[in-house]
Automatic annotation (TrEMBL):
GO terms for biological process: arsonoacetate metabolic process; toxin metabolic process. It comes from Aldrovandia affinis. The lineage of its organism: Eukaryota, Metazoa, Chordata, Craniata, Vertebrata. One of its GO terms (cellular component) is cytosol. This is Arsenite methyltransferase. Residues 363-382 are annotated as: Disordered. Pfam families: Methyltransf_31.
Length: 382
């Protein structure tokens, strides 16, 4: 892309489009032909161990057909709270493991759309639609799979302002145009909607020799976003500041690839981004969780900084208060203006550096949510 600096705008656009097509083709080839199961991966990036999985999620995963699970390449656990009745979009759904797991949690009145660009993966996913509907006791499937690109959701036939939640599990790094991914996600989310996703992040911007390496890209490392760029891109698109949920170190365990990566470090991290209208008041207040989310009766781990315990008042800044009031969590909290909190108080400075969080977790300095509670989900989406 370096030659683009000297070319015209139209030449740059053509070169960029050609570059994106090449990456898409490489990813399709890698995940559609070269990888036949998770055992074929050359690093541990896409199968990084997550934190302990709650029992109800383990059960939901156990009920997914093994042919689907065998083609799973995710890097984290993408199960936000309060899913019953929600409309969810899974970006880069692959063979559909997370789609079928979540289809049980949203229930028959909810709906899950899985989007992927790889025909071979979608072929596996679509094969088991009726199987899972019958296994879960649904009168009809609550899942569908769409072929398309996460950089162009409208072209894939997805309507704007139509989803409560978007999830993504270790695929944003595979996109050559991450700005478009976030912008398209923002557009198809309803107001108050959430993008909840796990991905691979780098300790700094990666050089071209790493980004152009096909295996490193396919293994989710070459396209890893510098975590600070995520914060910048989220703001540019219109999302509220990212909320960091959890982070864990990536170990490559491949000497040849480790030598190419040098001193660059990687983590698997989960963030949640909310689409909150810009004109929503940002007033600090005290909030109290009512304990009504099934499975989270005692406490709700919202992110790595906030754990809301039942009937316990917690002071939050204007940004967090706005998120809770405008999202599907609104009915789960009571809100009271805190006389000690300025109505115009700016958001508190809270670190969203996943490398810093991972170090604190290693030293026992903090705990983190795993993405989910310990029981069935109560309806939050109407």
């Amino acid at each position: 892309m370096a030659s683009c600096e000297k070319g015209s705008r139209s030449e740059c656009s053509k070169e960029r489009a050609s570059h994106e097509r090449m990456i898409h083709d490489d990813v399709k080839d890698y995940y559609g032909k070269k990888l036949q199961s998770s055992a074929d991966l050359k690093t541990n990036a896409c199968i990084a161990p997550a934190k302990p999985i709650p029992a109800f999620i383990r059960k939901a995963l156990k009920d997914v057909h093994p042919d689907v699970t065998d083609r799973y390449y995710g890097c984290g656990l993408v199960v936000p709270e309060c899913l019953e009745g929600c409309r969810i979009l899974d970006l880069g759904c692959g063979s559909g493991r997370d789609v079928y797991m979540l289809s049980q949690l949203v229930g028959e009145k909810g709906h899950i759309t899985g989007l992927d660009m790889t025909d071979k993966q979608l072929e596996v996913a679509r094969k088991y639609v009726d199987h899972h509907a019958q296994k879960f006791g649904f009168s009809k499937p609550n899942t569908e799979f769409v072929q398309g690109y996460m950089e162009a959701l409208e072209k894939a036939g997805l309507e704007g302002n139509s989803y409560d939640i978007i999830i993504s599990n270790c695929v944003v790094n595979l996109s050559p145009d991450k700005t478009s991914v976030l912008r398209e996600a923002f557009n198809v989310l309803k107001d108050g909607g959430e993008l909840y996703f796990s991905d691979i992040y780098s300790s700094s911007r990666l050089p071209e020799e790493i980004k152009s390496h096909k295996v490193l890209w396919g293994e989710c490392l070459g396209g890893a976003l510098w975590w600070e760029d995520l914060v910048r891109l989220a703001a540019e698109v219109g999302f509220s500041p990212p909320r960091l949920v959890t982070a864990s170190t990536i170990t490559v365990d491949n000497k040849e690839l480790e030598s190419l990566l040098g001193d660059y470090k990687f983590v698997s991290a989960t963030y949640r981004l909310f689409k909150i209208p810009k004109d929503s008041p940002r007033k600090g207040c005290q909030v109290m969780y009512n304990g009504d989310i099934t499975g989270c009766e005692k406490s709700l781990e919202f992110d790595c900084h906030y754990t809301f315990k039942e009937n316990e008042a917690v002071e939050v800044d204007g940004e967090v208060a706005s998120i809770l009031k405008q999202s599907r969590f609104a009915g789960e909290f009571s809100f009271q203006l805190d006389s000690q909190t300025s109505c115009c108080a700016p958001p508190k400075e809270i670190s969203v550096n996943p490398f810093e969080l991972e170090e604190k977790m290693k030293s026992g300095g903090t705990t983190s949510a795993t993405g989910g509670c310990s029981g069935a989900q109560k309806s939050c989406c109407q």
